[in-house]
Amino acid sequence: MAAFEVGPEDMYAAPEYIKDGSADHDYGLIRLPGRDPWGLGCTSLPDGELENRIVTNCGFPGDKPENTMWITGGKITSVTADRIFYMNDTAAGQSGSPVYTWAGGYWRVVGIHSYGGCPNSAPRVTTTMISRLISFVKA
């Protein structure tokens, strides 16, 4: 794999998080060069389609052997306008990993894992989030 460089202009954080540390907006993006033909799509599902849905999370939990990816699954327990809450077994080190589900024949990211606990929670993928991230990537 070839090395590449990114600078501050390639990093994005939600303005609400920068302003006041809003847990509802605890997400960011690092723009990388090139294209990834195998990436996951994002989708903003309505409350009724998210509630009680099974979601998957994969990441590198700090309580497992170093450099090993772990996958967990669990059910969404509640949703708000900007967050989803779910019962997956996660650990420190998984923040920023995708929370995804099978929807419309594809795996779709519906949240960005940010907080452990019982239940876990993630900023919810919304149309506003998608618009902001697309604008940033295209800039």
UniProtKB/TrEMBL annotation:
Record-linked PROSITE patterns: V8_SER
SUPFAM superfamilies tied to this protein: Trypsin-like serine proteases (SSF50494)
The keyword Protease appears for this protein: yes
Keyword terms: Hydrolase, Protease, Serine protease, Signal
Record InterPro entries: Glutamyl_endopeptidase (IPR050966), Peptidase_S1_PA (IPR009003), Peptidase_S1_PA_chymotrypsin (IPR043504), Peptidase_S1B (IPR008256), V8_ser_AS (IPR000126)
GO MF annotations, alphabetized: serine-type peptidase activity
Hydrolase listed as a keyword: yes
Biological process terms in GO annotation: proteolysis
Enzyme Commission number(s): 3.4.21.-
Family statement: Belongs to the peptidase S1B family.
Annotated protein name in UniProt: Serine protease
